[in-house]
Amino acid sequence: MGREENGVAPPQRRFRGKYRQPAWRRSEGQPVAVMVLELPVTDPRTLRRLANLYAAAWHIKRAVQRDARARVNAYWAARTQRKDKGPKAVRERLGLSREGLQRAAYQHLEDSGWLRHHLTKALAMHLTGEVWTATQRHLFGDATGKRAGRPKAGRWWDFTRIPGRARSHTTAAKWETFRLVGTLEGHVGAFRHPHLPQDVHPHTPADAAQLPPGQSVLLQPRRMATPTVPTGHVPTGNPTPSGRRKATWWDYDGPLAVVLTGIGGGDLVLPVRLPQGCGCWPRVLHFLADPDAWHKIDLVRRRKPSAPGGWAYEAHLMVLRPGYAAPGTVELRRQAAKLDRVGGVDGNVSHLEVVSLPATLDPAAGPVLSSEITLSETDKRRLLTQASKRRRRQRALDRSRRATNAQQYGLSKRQRKRAERRQVAGLPGKTVQMPRGPRAARNNGPPSRAYRTDRLSKSYQHHRDRLAANAARAAQANKARAMLLARHLIGIHGSNLTIEDCDIRAWFRLWGKRLSQTTPGLLLNALEKECAAAGGRLLRASTFTTAMSQHCLCGAAVRKYLRDREHICPACGLTGKRDLVSAALGIFVHLDDPNDPSTARVDYTSSRHAQLVFGSGLQEALRESTAAYLPLASAGGGRAAATRPQRRGPLLRETPDPKAGRPRMRPEPRQGSGHAGKSAFPPAAPVAYEPRGKSWAATT
Ligand SMILES: [Zn+2]
């Protein structure tokens, strides 16, 4: 400070050591995207080493999490000291800082030879960084003053990601933890499909992307060989006495592989499996053709009951470029941006409505279009079947747990009565294999023995894993479907849409778990993303300042309860579906500040004008959806390692009717419990969305 006062510039801040440059940082708006690379590890030794790597990483993370928690507890307990000496001094004393936790992690590593053998210090530091971030969120809170809970040790099953360090962009050949070695050319050269015509398509990956549909680029074996580090020497080009150096992974140009060096037992080399069909290759090229864009690799595992060891491994490669969009999607977004329409959206638990007009409000520029998206009867049936299947599996799990931990459960009423009957009749007592009564519990409620200490059979574990894998697959499919649907909608209605600012969490409170099957939040998120990608925006308008469900386009207030599904305006005579009218009002919402939903108001002058100029067209659009069918773009992306030949979803309307031409094997699933309930709201139909409309069904 003294030097500043004397007019002398303060010395430049030093970064990481004496003469170092400032650390490289990703610039603010630079896009990043992640590609999932499948790592088909089949070699038993590599699998064991990977399992040990995960175990070591989890142990060190848990140890540091416990350290952090203990220090946080001590910090909050030292109330007087915080007041007298200041919070910072207390944190310093306790070692409650990034550096303090890193020291603790080092200590753990040094204390345990096993940990050090299976883990590098860089990985331990990175895991510690994650723990410190969580601790920071607890200690300091965010911009709104909200603080996260105290850090706590996670579960082994939730520990799926080992974060890697980013590649150095200032020093060549520096990639500290997981690195991707090899080249795309090397991969094509090694696994080129034998049916590829030798003369027409040479070995370059760029040619592979140009192949006609249906052609496979690669043929990779089920058990992929583990690449080895190059041997021999390479010339350095420097005028040193020998003029050459030993070859390393940096000189390797064979098939792609992920390498971790610096752990005991030599380099951990994991072969990479790429998508084989040429349809995926534009995307493969986008991510892998330019090694300069590779930024960082995280090692991720996910439960896969059929994989050896029960886990499938993936490398999540982050690249410094935007995500891939298929040419069809790019074209669709371009068309959507050119549409020059404005639309309103009305979302609800089990359906979604969109109505749009030309932005100029000129009938010559285009008609009123409306779309209703809801579930078809086929989907409802399919979802009910799925739900009952899930419940059956859950019950099977419960039976298995009861059978292996019989002493923790009491007899059911029926079992008890039977035992009493036998006793009265003088018959010997029967051993109950599976008690169906309640879990043995303490007087105040909690079970007398924790569930986590239960003995679980192998088949229990297998079925539980299968359930989890199915749930993950279903979530992935829902996400893909939501994305397709969002694209379909912006293709018709343009990318400038307005929706009521609703809180999905409130819906969850009202409708509970069933909402997780309909996933309206997923669709709204997808719609928001697609609008932004097409250069528009999904605006949110407050319900309190607009009350769109309680008004007519003419401006008159039309009171409706939630059970009233029809809108009939006594003032202007407009009739239509309640949600379509509400969505149509969204078109005329103006926001003084687009980022603040509470500044929204409905411009009834414009809506009255539109009502006049569009006349019967508007009236018809509000009675039923009128949007024309639009071919959907194909679903790109997804999880490479998880893809399976998927059943066509309801979007394409090709699912055969399960009842048609097949003998009935089971009674019809129940269409509802018949339970009236207390809620004034209609019961939510279970599922995902599907467009419905006259022309939609007619076209397909
Ligand atoms: Zn009216």
Sum this structure up briefly.
The protein has helices at residues 2-5, 44-77, 79-85, 87-94, 98-111, 113-118, 121-140, 184-191, 205-208, 281-288, 327-338, 377-404, 413-424, 458-493, 504-511, 515-518, 520-533, 543-546, 578-586, 604-623, 694-699; strands spanning 33-39, 161-162, 178-181, 233-235, 244-246, 257-260, 268-271, 294-303, 311-319, 341-347, 352-358, 369-373, 496-500, 537-541, 566-568, 575-577, 589-591, 600-602, 691-692.
Describe this entry's structure for a reader.
The strands form 6 sheets. The chain has a 6-stranded mixed β-sheet with strand order 14-13-10-11-12-19, with helices on both faces. Strands 1-9-8-2 form a 4-stranded antiparallel β-sheet. A 3-stranded antiparallel β-sheet has the order 3-6-7, covered by helices on one side. It folds into 2 domains: 28-237 and 244-324, no CATH class; 328-377 and 467-621, 2-Layer Sandwich (Nucleotidyltransferase, domain 5), CATH 3.30.420. The protein is 38% helix and 13% strand. It has 21 helices and 19 strands. It has 700 residues and is α+β, with helices and mostly antiparallel strands. The protein starts with a helix and ends with a helix. Bound molecules: zinc ion. Zinc ion is lined by residues 552, 554, 556, 569, 571-572, 574.
Strand order of the largest sheet: 14-13-10-11-12-19
What's the total number of strands?
19
Using the alpha-carbon principal axes, give the shape. globular
Provide the domain count: 2
Helix content: 25-40%
Question: Helical region count?
Answer: 21
Mean pLDDT: 81
The low-pLDDT segments are 1-7, 629-700
Beta-strand percentage range: 5-15%
What summary fits the major beta sheet? 6 strands, mixed
Bound molecules: zinc ion
Helix-strand makeup class: alpha+beta
Distance between the termini: 76 Å
Integer-rounded radius of gyration: 31 Å
